[in-house]
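Class, carefully examine what follows:
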Amino acid sequence: MLPFLLLASRAEDAAAEDEYAAYLRYGGLDERELHRVRLEAAPLPALDLSRYSGVIVGGSPFTSSDPPEHKSPVQHRVERELSALLDQLVALDFPFLGACYGVGTLGSHQGAVIDRTYGEPLGAVEVELTEEGLQDPILQGMPQAFTALTGHKEAVRLLPRHAVLLASSATCPVHMFRIRTNLYATQFHPELDTDGLVTRIDIYRHAGYFPPESAEELMANARRFTVTEPMTVLKNFVARYSR
C-alpha cells in the first residue's frame, strides 16, 4: 500500500505526538503507512503525489482568518505552502482530508468566507449529516446525528457554491464539506477521543481558546463523554483511497 501523508503544524511535541498516534490508531495505519511532515519545523519538501494514497492535514494553533500582521513568519510560510499544494490537489481531485485547520486551508483556497462568527469552545457537539452527507461514501455507516469533539476560533460562514455541505451543528453551520469528488474538510476532529481532548486542553490552556482558569473544568467535562463515531470518517477515508 502506498502511504498517506500527514501534514502537521503543532509546535508542542506532546500535542504533535498525540495527534500522530491518534491518526495511526483510528486510521488503522502503522508508521510505514502514514508519513508525517511537521510544517512548523521546516519548509515543506518537494512532493511526488504519485507516491501517496492521500493527503491529510491535521489541526493547528494557526488561525487562517487572522489579519496578516498578526500572523508569524512561520504561519505565512505554512499558508503559502499549503495553498500551492492545494492548487495541485484540487486540479487532480486528489484524495484530501483536512481536520479543523483543513477547513481554514481548503475553505480559504476555494473561496469560502472564514471568520470567527461560528467558533466553538473545546468540548463535545452534536453534529448532523445533511442529505448529501448521508449519501457520501466517507460518511457511510454513520448515524445521521452523532457526538464529535471540537474546539476552534474560526469556521466557515459561507461556502462557495461548488462546495457540497455534508454536516452541520446548531452552533456551526459548516462542520464538513466536499470539493469535487475526493477533497474533504471537517471542522470536528475525526481523530480525537476524550483522552486526546484532555491532553489538548492542558497543552493549549494559554492559547486563547478559553480562559486559562477554566481548563480543569473543561477537562472534567470532557471526561463525561465517550466519542466513537467521528473516527469512522478517518477509517472510511483510508479504506476508500488506499492503493
